[in-house]
Amino acid sequence: MWEDRRGRIDHDGPATLWAQVVADIEADIAAGALSAGSRLPTELELAEIYGVARGTVRRAVADLAERGAVVVVHGRGTFVANNR
C-alpha cells in the first residue's frame, strides 16, 4: 500500500508540498484504499515515502486532522477517522 510515492509529488509546481501530500492521502481515503481505523505510517516513514521533509509531513498530517480525515493519538499513531 505504502510504496514509493515520490512520483506523485511535483516539487517544481505551484502547489505546496504538504498540500500535495494531503490531496494524495485524501484521495486514498475517498477511494476506499484507506478505510476507517487504518493506521498511517509514521511521519518519518511518510517523509521517505513521499520524498519530502518531515516538517512537510507534519504540516500535512496536522491539516488532515483539522479536516477530520485522520485522528492523531499521541504515542499510538495516526489513524483514518471513522466519520468518513
The radius of gyration is: 12 Å
CATH C-level: Mainly Alpha
User: How many DSSP H or I helices?
Assistant: 3
| Helix content percent band | 40-55%
Query: Which structural category fits the helices and strands?
Result: mainly alpha
The total count of strands amounts to 2
Oligomer: single chain
Distance between the termini: 19 Å
Which homologous superfamily in CATH is the superfamily? Winged helix-like DNA-binding domain superfamily/Winged helix DNA-binding domain
What order do the helices and strands follow? HHHEE
Main sheet characteristics: 2 strands, antiparallel
CATH architecture: Orthogonal Bundle
Mean pLDDT: 96
CATH topology: Arc Repressor Mutant, subunit A
What is the molecular shape?
globular
How would you describe this protein?
A hairpin with a 3-residue loop joins strand 1 (70-73) and strand 2 (77-80). The mean pLDDT is 96. The protein has a single domain, classed as Arc Repressor Mutant, subunit A. A two-stranded antiparallel sheet has the order 1-2. The protein has helices at 17-31, 43-50, 54-66; strands at residues 70-73, 77-80. The chain is mainly alpha-helical. The two termini are 19 Å apart.
